[in-house]
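Researcher: Go.
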Amino acid sequence: MFIDHGHRVPPGFGLECPSCSGIQISARFPAREQRRPIPRFLEQSRGAMLGGYPGTTGGGCPHGEGPARPPSVTSMETRPQPQPGARVENRYRHAGLFFLLATAIPWALWLPAAWFSRQPDSGLLVGVLGIAGLLAPVGVVAWLTRGDRDLARDMLRRLDVRGVRPVWLLVACGLMPAAVVVATLISLPLGYSADQLLLRGAFTFTAGLIPGWVVIVLAPVAEELAWHSYGTDSLRRRFTVFTTSMVFGVIWAVWHLPLALIEGSSQNQTAEQGVLHALNFPLSVFPFVLLMNWIYYRSDRNITVTILFHLSANLVTQVLATHPDTEVIATGVLLVTTTVVVIAERRLFFEPAIAPRPTSDGDPAGQGVAIAA
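Model: Structure:
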C-alpha cells in the first residue's frame, strides 16, 4: 500500500513519520493471513524503514527527520527468542518462584497430615495428603513451563537414557549401595552385627494407609521430575554447580522438615532415634546432592539418571538391615567420597554461572523483538 507522500509500507507494520503532522501509518495482515510467515522482501522493507533509507540524512524517513518512531499503538511485542548458540538452560528462569511454591504447597499439605496422623481412623487422609505434597512440585513445573515447547522438548530429551554412557548408569545405581556396604564393614570392628548385610524382609515405615514400598519408589520419581527438570537448572543459571548444590541442599532439607512430624514416616522414625540421627539426615543431604549433580551433569543433564541414584539410596537402607548408627558412618563415607570428587572435578563444580549477560541496550542474550503475527 502507498500513502500520500510516497512511503512504501509493508502490510503488518506501523510507523509514525515526524513530517506527517503526527499521522500514524499502519497496516495489518487480515486475520486469515496472520498465521503465514513474513516474506523475505517484507523483512528487508521493514529493515529499511527501521534502520534507514539510502540517501537520507536521518534514516528511517525520506524527509530526513531521523529514524522512524514506533507507533504509540503497536503490533510489536518483546518475547524471548532463541539465539544461535544459546543454551536451553537459560530458559529456566524462575528459581525463586519455583522453590517458593514447591516448598510452600507441600508444607501446606503435610502440616495438616502431621496432625491427622495422630487422630484415629485417619490413615487414608494422611496418605492422600502425603502423596499430594510429594507430587506438588511436579505440578509447579508444569505450570511454570506451560506453553513452552522448547522446555518441554528439553525435559523429554533428558528422560531418555539411550544417550547416557553406561558407566554413569552404573555409578548412579551402585554408588549409594557401595557407600552403605563400606559403612557397614567399618561398623563391624566397632561391635555392630554382620546381620546388617542381610535383607531386612520388610519396609520399616508407612505413609498412612500407603505401603512403604510405594513411597520408596514414588518419591525419587516425583521429586527428581521437579528438582532436576526445573529446579537445579534454574539455580545453575545464577551459580556454579557447587553453589547450586549447596543452595538446593538447604532448600531440600527444609522441604523435608514437616515429614518428621507425620507419625510413622521414615523421617519421623529417624528423628525419634535421637539428636545425632535427626541431624544426620540434613547433613547427609549436602554430599548426596553434590554427588547427584556430578552424575547429572556428566550424563548431559539426564533426569532418569538422578531418579536411579535417588531410588538406589532409598532402597539400600530399607532392603538391608542397616543399623541407624551405620547410617551416620555412611554419611562420613559420602563426605570423603564427595571431597575427592569435587577436587578431581573442580572445573565442573566451579565453572561460572551460565546466565546470559545483559547487552548494551539492556536486552539479555536470548531475548529479542518479534513482530506479532
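Model: The two ends are 18 Å apart (CA to CA).
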